[in-house]
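Case study B.
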Amino acid sequence: MKRLLSDTLVVTERNLIRLPRAPELLLAFTIQPIMFVLLFRYVFGGAIQVPGSSYAEFLIPGIIVQNIAFGGFVTALGLNEDMQKGLIDRFRSLPMARAAVLAGRTSADVFTNALSMTILIVTGLIIGFSFQTSALHVIVGLVLALTFGYAFSWVFAYLGLLVKTPEAANSVGFIAVFPLTFISSAFVPGQTLPTPLRQFADVNPFTIVVNELRSQWTGQPSPDHLWQAFAWVAFILVVFAPLAVQRYRQAAGS
Amino acid sequence: MLNNDAAISVRGITKSFGDVRALTGVDLDVARGTVLGLLGPNGAGKTTLVRILTTLLRPDSGSAQVAGLDIPGEEARLRERIGLAGQYAAVDENLTGLENLTMVGRLYGSPRGAAAARGSELLEQFDLVDAARRPVKTYSGGMRRRLDLAAALVAKPPVLFLDEPTTGLDPRSRLDLWDVIETLVSEGTTVLLTTQYLDEADRLADRIAVIDHGLVIAEGTSDELKDRVGGERLEVHLEDFSQADAALRALAPMCSEDPVLSDGLVRIGLTRRGGAIVEAVRLLDEAGIGVDDLALRRPTLDDVFLTLTGHAAEEENPE
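Model:
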């Protein structure tokens, strides 16, 4: 167990060191979220009416959850690249804890997610977002967002090990996750959607997590789904972490 | 029976991928402190065998002992005693040379300081000191291979597996890498080396195992294998290649097998070596055939490979 922790730490560090040296990836964490906030706030925002708050307050939690869910892309692309380049073979020939390769990847995502979340919050504060609740609620919200992102990193870990090329990981990930984030209450109030979409949005974990984040940070809507939001986090982890580990064993063994 | 004096001992290993039988019962022994060259075309099963012996793959049946530890059974401990350098330089492009080696050292369980010290030592040994703090993506192909090999040596393993270590390298870098490998062996490391290059096996390997279609089809020293395909060859460059048939008639008394005519060259196998050149010159002179040049040649491993497998070593394209 001690070995798993120290090896995970080494792999996490490796993934973080290399980040600033891949500028295109760094752009995805920094400039791209800002661009999305500005586009939604100033291009679409004027046309979207949200009950009980300003669009900036509505938007920031939604865009944070979307961004954080996509943060796991780094894991998908990174693992895929490591497989292609033989680095996974190197790791597997070392006397290290097997799970550390995946755990180190997903842990590194928590740091990058925290970075892009900070950027989004600062951008939000500039364009009119503000926290309306106590520090405790703000922290609960932060924890919810980061753990949700961590769970999604395991989804992406599985995806990255499943497909043959980074390009495939990219398009499959986009096709799977993009609609999921948009058919939710992340950018527009769920009530405005046509009935079939609304029914989907109502049960979509993104809606549940976004609404909960909103209520933790702005008090709207009233906070009563906290356990449900964390249940989704746990559910995604329990399903996808074993899938990814199993796939890692298979993929690396062939 | 497993051979206890061997650093690597392989008995009856088989491995299939679906319908493809990659290994069909491999037996091998590599004595401590020696180099075994595993020679074969792409798809012969070389890499599969290396992956099994380095614990990356499980064999379907059979067993092996590497550095005194059993496969199957003691894979976890075995990983502490082997090094693997692959045909794809498995290093992180976005880390520096030193960061790569330090990472590997820490994953062997060394504290950070000790891992970095060992990394620096290896960078020095592999002539990479100047590049130690540059990301690997700025390295040349030869530098990457050296770093990859250095990464395999972090824990000073007694047994080293090199899977096509020089494939795709320029001639200069190949020679450099050969020097490094020879130094390691002189210090007592046992090496199993796979290669498609006959000159590489000829230069580095104490013994050579030829593998084709998942089976070891011949094993011995380079000389033993060459002797197996027959004696020396005489190559004659004629002044006028249109006289080739006449030359063959003249040389017939000293030919051991069917002669070959190619590229302006008459090539014959000799019945006996002594006095062959003098006799050939005399026979050709009497027949009035002009000779440009002539030479005795030992069979090469290419000849060995061609004779044993019926096809050349490098004719199949990499996947």
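The CA atoms of residues 39 and 75 of chain A lie 27 Å apart. The remaining cases will be described in the next quarterly update.
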